[in-house]
Amino acid sequence: MNMKEQQYVCVLAECGSITRAAKELYISQPALSIYINNLEKSLNVKLFERVGKRFILTYAGERYVEKARAMLRLEEEFEEELKDITGNYTGRIRIGVQTRRATWLLPPVVAAYEQEFPNVDVILYEGIQGVLDQKVKNFQIDLLLCNASDVRPDMKSHLMFKEQLLVAVPQRHPVNEKARYVPGDPYRYLDLTHLNGENLILAKPEQSIRQDADRFLAEKGVKPRKVRVISNIETAMQLVAEGLGIGFNREGYARHMKYAKSVNYYGIDSREGKTDFVLAYRKDMPVMGYMQRMIDMLLERGREYQR
């Protein structure tokens, strides 16, 4: 089945921009524009209102997208059932993961998987959570590796591991003296109230690590003196190491970073200081044999990390 028409309209509806949609679909902007115009002519109804450069769904467009998404789900289910019936495991698995995690989490899994299923194409999408969420919604990602808080209601999830959000402090900063020992925990804990009036180095607002940090800081009523925004977590940690401020890092990131100068890491004094990292996929996605094998291998990788 060829669902190009439905895919094009759904992606344009999600992006709201012909430029962004064309980029997502790997086609030229003029080609997509012509395609949508011809489709509207054939249907004899406008699917989108053009407001400047924005494409906004009409009522007919909303109804079209609702049906188109259902058709895309059915197409995916049919293709997966055919593979199970014929035993012809040729196809693809599209995995979405935050950029920083991909470097250490996925390569050994992909290598081992492709030894078992050489005819299944494993495609990796790396990016910030907002971009990955959009791809899931547009049926461009099958398996999403993310924090449990980012799982949508229409998705099913499996725990891969738990990790802490850590406070990163320069080695010679006075706040180091405020950290307290917690029996049985590999990190001393730091009450975030001690960050009042300090310079902070934080990720961009759309990054999940920033959202977690903002939540904990708000819980403690922390008012920083200055906030420096850096999207690259490794760069942020290097700035912390140079004494330019206090930052936040995930335990999994910290384990796989190397610094010319080191930083001190502390746990957060909160019951919610630990985050569940999960594997998620749409509840209506058919999970056939070769897909289940990838899920099992990713979950085992998570257990290895936890150990």
TrEMBL record:
Q: Which GO terms describe its molecular function?
A: DNA binding; DNA-binding transcription factor activity
Provide the leader sequence positions. none
Q: Which UniProt keywords apply?
A: DNA-binding, Transcription, Transcription regulation
Tell me the superkingdom of the source: Bacteria
InterPro entries per UniProt: LysR_HTH_N, LysR_subst-bd, WH-like_DNA-bd_sf, WH_DNA-bd_sf
Q: Where is the HTH lysR-type domain?
A: 1-58
Q: Name one GO cellular component term.
A: protein-DNA complex
Q: Does the keyword DNA-binding apply?
A: yes
Cited Pfam families: HTH_1, LysR_substrate
Q: Keyword Transcription regulation on this protein? A: yes
PANTHER family for this protein: HTH-TYPE TRANSCRIPTIONAL REGULATOR CYNR (PTHR30346:SF28), TRANSCRIPTIONAL DUAL REGULATOR HCAR-RELATED (PTHR30346)
Q: Which family does it belong to?
A: Belongs to the LysR transcriptional regulatory family.
- UniProt-recorded name of the protein: DNA-binding transcriptional regulator, LysR family
Could you tell me which species this protein originates from?
Answer: Enterocloster lavalensis
